[in-house]
Amino acid sequence: MQPTALPAPYCKACRAQALASYPGWTEPVAADAIVYLHDDLVVSTDAARLHVVFEDPSAAWRTFAASELDLRSTVSKTRAAHRRSTAGSATTVNGI
Asked: Distances in Å between the alpha carbon of 21 and those of 31, 74, 89?
């Protein structure tokens, strides 16, 4: 039986100016630059997380990301779509 692939970590591309309204955002990133908000709330300048520019473990940041950036519902929808696409995808070996 082939193992089911796990969903890739999610990230949402957005303009830095959308994050600039968060009081703790002090990063020197151009307002029109694209940054990536990852499902663990780390912000980087690339989807692969090679260049992290912001990390804030606070409840205030989690609340901001969920309410202002709609991260929580986007992650939930992405994971639900992955579960639907892999449901029943287990394969059999030699008819077993």
From this structure: 11, 20, 43
Give the C-alpha separation, 38 to 10, whole Å: 6
28: amino acid identity, one letter: P
Quote the CA–CA distance of 32 and 86 in Å, as a whole number: 36
Q: Is 25 part of a structural domain of the chain? A: yes
Containing structural domain, residue 62: 11-86
Per-residue pLDDT reduced to its tens digit, 55-92: 999 999 999 999 998 876 454 455 555 556 666 555 44
CA 64 to centroid of chain Cα atoms = 14
Number of domains in the chain: 1
Strand, helix or coil for residue 94: coil
Model-level pTM? 0.68
